[in-house]
Amino acid sequence: MARKFFVGGNWKCNGTSEEVKKIVSTLNDAQVASADVVDVVVSPPFVFLPLVKSLLRPDFHVAAQNCWVKKGGAYTGEISAEMLLNLDIPWVILGHSERRLLLGESNEFVGDKVAYALSKGLKVIACVGETLEQRESGATVEVVAAQTKAIAERISDWTNVVLAYEPVWAIGTGKVATPAQAQEVHYELRKWLQINVSVEVAESTRIIYGGSVNGANCKELAAQPDVDGFLVGGASLKPEFVDIINSAT
Ligand code: PEP
């Protein structure tokens, strides 16, 4: 089954409204393949979501960078899935390593968040990935499998999930995984889905790579059979994001 290429831009905690307008304007002017060929989803900070949504071309979509684990209420500082839906935000990134490591989000907590967001109708970019220490100790597959298992145990439908493999050692470091390293883990993740979920889910779920992807390295990574796109941090704030969107065509 052909899996549609997916490119996400994670703007993290960056930008002013003027800078955001400039990025959107670059994206709106870009020549890219049609939405039948590539899904493009950009993820500004919460406060800029309405602005970006109102200015962005209609064939690109927006994602929040997080949402709360259940219905909103007395959770100061949090944003609920319901609020995102109220603003017509279709996607959310969950389980990013910066939240797992800096804010202590456990596999189970991320799994609960994914399940709740999906149950409300959001589409989810669910992130998994190992630290350098875990890679060096040979635990990469075990770590990403445990992260994926905590999600799989809590959901029954993978249609609206994109799985992002983001080795922590490659995020924001300029140290990109080699195409062979990325392919190896993507292959293992797909095999895990095949054995533990179903053949259909393994074949249809997009597994995208994140970690220092840029305009120069994206083509070779995109050519790997199990790499179905990218989640891009730093380079998604720059014009080269357009080259990344076009890397599979
Ligand atoms: C990310 O934060 O999801 C990411 C992949 O960042 P970068 O591209 O900057 O490594």
Write the topology of this structure.
Elements: E1 5-10, H1 17-29, E2 38-43, H2 49-55, E3 60-64, H3 81-86, E4 91-94, H4 97-102, H5 107-120, E5 123-128, H6 132-136, H7 140-152, E6 161-165, H8 179-196, H9 199-204, E7 206-210, H10 218-222, E8 229-232, H11 241-245
Parallel strand pairs: 1-2, 1-8, 2-3, 3-4, 4-5, 5-6, 6-7, 7-8
Helix pairs in contact: 5-7, 7-8
The chain binds phosphoenolpyruvate.
Describe this structure in words.
Helix content is 39%, strand content 16%. By secondary structure, it is α/β, with parallel strands linked by helices. It has a single domain, classed as Alpha-Beta Barrel (TIM Barrel). Strands 1-2-3-4-5-6-7-8 form an eight-stranded parallel barrel, surrounded by four helices. The two termini are 18 Å apart. The structure holds phosphoenolpyruvate. Phosphoenolpyruvate binds next to strand 8.
List keywords for this structure.
alpha/beta; eight-stranded parallel β-barrel; binds phosphoenolpyruvate; 249 residues; 16% strand; 11 helices; TIM Barrel; globular
Strand segment count: 8
Shape annotation: globular
Biggest sheet strand order reads 1-2-3-4-5-6-7-8
In this structure, how is the largest beta sheet organized? Answer: 8 strands, parallel, barrel
Q: Strand fraction band?
A: 15-25%
The termini sit apart by: 18 Å
Find the CATH superfamily. Aldolase class I
Radius of gyration from the alpha-carbon trace, in angstroms: 17 Å
What hetero molecules are bound to the protein chains?
Answer: phosphoenolpyruvate
How is the CATH topology named? TIM Barrel
**Mind telling me the CATH class?**
Alpha Beta
Poorly predicted sequence stretches spanning 5 or more consecutive residues:
none
